[in-house]
Amino acid sequence: MVVKNAMERKWILEVLVVVLVVKLCTLALSVSAWLVIQNQPADLLSLWNRWDAPHYVAIARYGYTAVGEQRLFIVFPPLFPLFIRLTALATSSYELAALLVSNLASILASIYLFKLARLDISESASLRSVFYFSIFPTAYFLIAGYSESLFLLLAISCMYYARTRRWALAGITGMLSTATRLTGLALVPALLSELLQQRTHQHEQNWNAVMAILMTPIGFFAYLMLNFAVFGDALAFTSIESGHWFKHFAPPWVGLFGAIYGIFWREPAEVVLVCFAEILFAGFALACIVYAMKFRISYCIYMLFSFIAFTSTAFWLSIPRYTLSLFPIFIMLAALSERKDMLHYAFSIAFASFFAFFTILFTQGRWAF
């Protein structure tokens, strides 16, 4: 047991080194790019407080309301803003609090990803999965004040606890995930798959698993009650998504055709970032879902339901960012490249190149998913 604990501490330390080195280099890159391109002093908090990040900060500072522009922010579930508000009690800066919550959550998410990967692949390959996760093209959202990090921490830990049959913890983390992102609901069928795969003759164990599965949507129901308390309509967020954010339900192919059609009329930058990138990442995610069928069925189910959720809209937007939430991808890529160094080099070069490119775009205030 002592040896095992010593080895585990060694690997966890290596995970921390990988994650922290990537984060420090990324922060240095963002500041350097600003100094060179803008030729003026850089404010680190401002560089990373872009696009949706100020909306989370506004919710943390002022809460939800049914009046003014602030009413539009009901589309963002409450758990991440709540953590920002609590952290701001110590920092006195909501922007800094958002970055601290996001980065701490992503560090913990990386540790859980390593532990989850270790259930199927070697330690070195598991560390490689963390590396791919940290340099994925849209992994800069693990630094910015977005809910991605917190959601991934909760979703990955939920799956880890389910895999290790600690169903009470799986239920708690699953419940919190659906209070962070609506795609946390994709964990429900994934957990059901794990229950069926692990089903034993121990009725207490099976009952604990059922209770965990039933607990998971509670965070979503709490979000619906929040909508009702603020607007008198439990589904108020859907009308705001459609009316202001231009996103409403449609079969995935509608968004696909829209992205293809946009190639012929959008500006060159939008063709790259709003058309080609959306199509490319959707294709990549779909290929990984298909491959997951022979890796682990619960991973396939989680990714499939998540994919359907974020592509079933008339206007495809932010699919590269949402693909980051399909965490089994990184475990599968690590398994694929474990004995094929050429694949590892290819993944690393491609991911790191686009990660740096998109990071610069994001911190310069340009659209980057």
Number of helical stretches of at least 4 residues: 18
How does the overall form come out from the CA principal axes?
A: globular
The low-confidence runs, each spanning 5 or more residues with pLDDT under 50, are none
Number of strands: 0
Please report the distance between the alpha carbons of the first and last residues. Answer: 45 Å
**SSE order, as H and E?**
HHHHHHHHHHHHHHHHHH
Helix fraction bin = over 70%
Mean pLDDT: 94
The value of Rg in angstroms is 20 Å
Tell me the structural class. Answer: mainly alpha
**Quaternary structure type:** single chain
Largest sheet entry: none
What is the beta-strand fraction? under 5%
Describe the fold and architecture.
With 369 residues, the chain is an all-alpha fold. Helix content is 72%, strand content 0%. The chain has 18 helices and no strands. It has helices spanning 2-38, 44-48, 53-62, 79-91, 94-117, 123-135, 148-163, 167-178, 187-198, 203-215, 218-231, 236-243, 252-262, 268-292, 297-311, 319-323, 328-337, 341-363. Helix 17 (328-337) packs antiparallel against helix 18 (341-363).
Please give a handful of descriptors for the protein shown.
369 residues, mainly alpha, 18 helices, globular
How is the secondary structure organized here?
Elements: H1 2-38, H2 44-48, H3 53-62, H4 79-91, H5 94-117, H6 123-135, H7 148-163, H8 167-178, H9 187-198, H10 203-215, H11 218-231, H12 236-243, H13 252-262, H14 268-292, H15 297-311, H16 319-323, H17 328-337, H18 341-363
Helix pairs in contact: 1-5, 1-6, 1-18, 3-4, 4-5, 5-6, 5-7, 6-17, 7-8, 7-9, 8-10, 8-11, 9-10, 9-15, 13-14, 14-15, 17-18
